[in-house]
Amino acid sequence: MLRIIILSIAIFALNVFAAAPTVITFGSGEIAPKEEIYEYHLLRLALDATKAEYGDYEIRDLPKGDVPTYSRLRVFAEDNQFENFVYKDSASNDILEKLHGVEFPVDLGVTGYRVGFVSPDSKRKLEKIETLDDLKQLTIIQGRGWLDSEILKKIGFKVVEGGNIKGLFYMAANDRGDIFLIGANELGREWKKNQDVKYLNYDQNVCIYYPLPKFFFLNKKNKVLADRIDKGLQIAYESGAVRKLWDEYYGEAVRFSALNKRKIFRFENPVISSLRKDYERFVINPELL
Question: Binning pLDDT at 50, 70 and 90, where does residue 3 land?
Fold first, then answer.
């Protein structure tokens, strides 16, 4: 009789354990609530697509406090400080060595298409660019410590840096460089926000592209969850759900940049030399926008 009771308790405990949802801690460097953040909804798409195989899940926030920088988010992942911690970051050889990256471009690679802000004089200068040699004469404005600064320097551009984000717009407007490059998805938003910067304009002729994939990153010990997210993203992509979500959050913003009307100059990204190119099949084609 005792054996039967013990066995029943064991079976009950096993069933409870099996039914328990996977707890996931979501991190973001954005001020907005997670319900307004694109990658939160993308993560849910992946998890929903894999419920039948992996079971239910529960997404938790980080403890209340200041919005963490991406450097802090990376430390959280490296130290495995929170249960199944997941966040989005730009891929680089360094981070890929230390964390498990789910090799699916969260934003479909759109931030690799770089367009930017200029002064009236620089705008006229960029309108005349036809060749790679012309392009390489430009001086690029970037934020100090940005990954893009490192990439642009390594592919042969002169880069001038500023420490204050608002100051970068003033640098562009006042010819401290030829162009302040940002992602194609950011141009319209930042143009509206910076109307107070006298002489600021934006270029409509040139786009500099280098692969700049942003992946979901986890501690390497969380491989089961990483595999689940990877599988779920591919299922959601094939079903069209990812593109639908992307259009909702990025479509109008990227169309503002009119990539299909620009000369696109393409470069390799030297800081992801260790990364396989499989993810590139998911990168958005600007000709189809």
Answer: low
Task: Report the DSSP pairing between strands 214-218 and 85-90.
Answer: antiparallel
Q: Are residues 85 and 144 both part of a single domain?
A: no
Is 38:183 a contact under the CB 8 Å cutoff? no
CA 21 vs CA 27, 60, 62, 100, 230: distances in Å = 19, 12, 18, 22, 18
pLDDT tens, 52-80?
999 999 999 999 877 899 999 999 999 99
Residue 271 · residue 155 · CB < 8 Å: no
Cβ count near 284 (within 10 Å): 20
Judgement on whether residues 187 and 62 belong to the same structural domain of the protein: no
d(C-alpha 186, C-alpha 259), whole Å: 13
Say how many C-beta atoms besides its own lie within 10 A of residue 253's C-beta: 16
Q: Identify the domain containing residue 135 by its residue range.
A: 110-209
Mean pLDDT for the stretch of residues 210-226? 98
